[in-house]
Amino acid sequence: MSKLENHFETEDELAIGVDLGGSKIGIALVKKNGEIEKYIKIPTHAEQGQESTINRIKQGIYQVIEQKDLRINKISGIGIGAPGPVDYKEGVIHCAPNLPGWKEVPLANIVKDEFQIPVIMENDANVAAWGEKTFGVARGIDDMVCLAMGTGIGAGLILSGKIYHGKNNLAGEIGHIIVNKEGPRCNCGNYGCLEAYSSAAGIKNRLYSKINKLKADNQTPPFISDLDDISLVQIFKMAREGNEVVKDIVEEAIEYLGIGIATVINILNPEMIVLVGGLANEGDKLLNPLKEIIYKRAMSSHLPDLKIVFGKLGDYAGVIGAAALFWNYV
Amino acid sequence: MSKLENHFETEDELAIGVDLGGSKIGIALVKKNGEIEKYIKIPTHAEQGQESTINRIKQGIYQVIEQKDLRINKISGIGIGAPGPVDYKEGVIHCAPNLPGWKEVPLANIVKDEFQIPVIMENDANVAAWGEKTFGVARGIDDMVCLAMGTGIGAGLILSGKIYHGKNNLAGEIGHIIVNKEGPRCNCGNYGCLEAYSSAAGIKNRLYSKINKLKADNQTPPFISDLDDISLVQIFKMAREGNEVVKDIVEEAIEYLGIGIATVINILNPEMIVLVGGLANEGDKLLNPLKEIIYKRAMSSHLPDLKIVFGKLGDYAGVIGAAALFWNYV
Asked: Are B266 and B217 found together in one domain?
């Protein structure tokens, strides 16, 4: 390759990032500086089955490429963030709670066979962490925990500058820190996991239990419309608006979240905790009480260099992080 | 270098390992296959001050070298395990709870100036972990937590085949996993740390509290001779011999230890947990109930490849691990 061609490649280098979720698939063409050149969002239609979803991914990628009128050989590769444990070396999704029927799916090879360019796949929490490290709030940070909060609580761990996977690519399950051995049952089957207190699903379960208890005691439970579909953001809003029952449960959720994060800090001594997901919009209303607990509960030796911040890539963390798997990733 | 000389060097390569403790200093000449060629153990005499202890280390090293009648240039280097947080890049001991007055001591450079060969220093928990990985029970294991139990509870983390240090070389404080937010006060100032339940110091404090409570209730507390100086091994023995008060506290200690280890497993997905320190002699009497709790409490997905074992280097883990810092260490 001539020097000129090499220069051209460096300036214009592009990668495709795919953010595969249970309800939506984000697909973007991303420049090497992290800018999104083109972005589409399509429904996953997981209920139509695995093959249908995979075809939608392929069509979405074609759509992004064609709209840019790009030749495929101008693209470094396709990065995929998948919603479940992933064998990143083999490019296989082991399973995905939000994609019924997906078991040991070699998605990376399927996509590679179609487009004949390199494909890398990672778990979505790892992808978000890598996005924040490469182009977001954690640039230059080598030891970082990127905590994704939503229905569940997961994390991507960046340790010594790299994604840390663990023996079976299952590292980062910080939602399953056991914060109270006598605590409520968690989806994992265990009791008293952080997730059972502080995730959207956990908080909802706590609310259901509390409402049932109030009813059993012949007291009037608070009115909550659409409890089944309520989001973490809505729950936090109700607590702020003075609903006492919700407020108690949210305060407990934040306390245990702070304690769980303090445990992670004591074990890993990270430089940064990045919070991503639905709660990122809460801002200081969440961050201030959370920091107060963390600063009280983590070892003082571990605090001086520590930063606790929200991610800055927002909804695009998935596609940007997936594309960024082609840059600086090892 | 000729092939013959090279062969000779490989066969005979040696390093010195120094295991600096609060009461004893172990110093050994270690062969590249992990065998100890020569070992001495001398008192630290920490009460005589820092300079005195450093001189004892130097004299000990000379003693080991002279007894082997070695020229110093036959030795790859001197590895030091230090009892406190260490800046391994600069070779500085930040502080050492068991070495009064030691603050920001550049011990690696001091020893290097004396012997004019490379010196590497690491925290003692990291050194033990590295020893078990290089020559002990964890050969070939890349993701491993080496849990050192004694007065406190610390750990060396081997992640992706390397010692993981964290931002300030403080990673591995698994004694400060918060297992019960309402729990007893810990030496770190926090409440409900694992160490407050399951370390020798924590168990003793629990015993004191229990004895005082029994006295206050006009009940007869169990007779325990020399409670101040009792070791973890003695406490476990009393529990097995049927002392009910001690038994309850020890069972709680094991339960919380299992829960803390389950938390570490969920976060890091290691392949192996290695238990070292005073408890290693307990064998299956400790390991069986501990495993039962871990297998109940950790995520089932994280268990299939997991091994939970005692270290096999025993009292020599420190000197062997310190010498091994010159081999395969990065």
From this structure: yes
Q: Based on the domain organization, do A212 and A278 belong to the same domain?
A: yes
Report the SS3 class of residue A26.
strand
Same domain, B125 and B223: no
Which residue range is the domain that position A152 belongs to? Answer: 140-310
Say whether A161 sits in a helix, a strand or coil. coil
Query: Residues B107, B92: contact at Cβ < 8 Å?
Result: yes
Structure tokens at B266: 């969920």
**Taken in order A275, A276, A282, A283, is the CA torsion positive or negative?**
positive
Contact A178 B263 (CB under 8 A): yes
Report the residue of chain A nearest B158, measured CA to CA. A166
Structure tokens given for B147? 């849990």
Largest CA distance in chain A: 81
- Alpha carbons A156 and B161: distance in angstroms, whole number: 19
Cβ–Cβ pairs < 8 A, chains A and B: 140
DSSP state of A222: P
A250 part of a folded domain:
yes
Which CATH number characterizes residue B147's domain? Answer: 3.30.420.40
DSSP B180: B
Q: Which residue of B has its CA nearest to A156?
A: B267
Give DSSP secondary structure letters for A218-257.
T-PPPP-TTGGG--HHHHHHHHHTT-HHHHHHHHHHHHHH
pLDDT single digits (tens) A41-72: 999 999 999 999 999 999 999 999 886 666 67
d(CA B282, CA B97): 27
- CA dist B65 and B110 (Å) reads 18
Q: Tokens standing for A123? A: 């778990």
- Regarding whether B89 and B62 lie in a shared domain, the answer is yes
CA distance A179 to A193: 6
**What CA–CA distance (Å, rounded) separates A34 from A37?**
9
Task: Decide: helix, strand or coil at residue A168.
Answer: coil
> Least CA distance to A272: which residue of chain B?
B167
pLDDT at B6 over 50: no
Substitution target from B144, B197, B266 for chain A, most A beta carbons within 10 A: B266
How much of chain A, in percent, has pLDDT values that exceed 90?
Answer: 72
Q: Give contacts of A256 with chain B, Cβ < 8 Å.
A: 181
**Distance set, CA B78 to CA A93, A203, B46, B120, B323 (Å):** 46, 54, 21, 6, 7
- pLDDT tens, A270-302? 999 999 987 777 889 899 999 999 999 999 999
Q: What is the DSSP letter of A72?
A: G
Q: How far apart are CA B250 and CA B235, in angstroms?
A: 8
Average confidence (pLDDT) over A99-112 = 96
pLDDT at B12 over 70: no
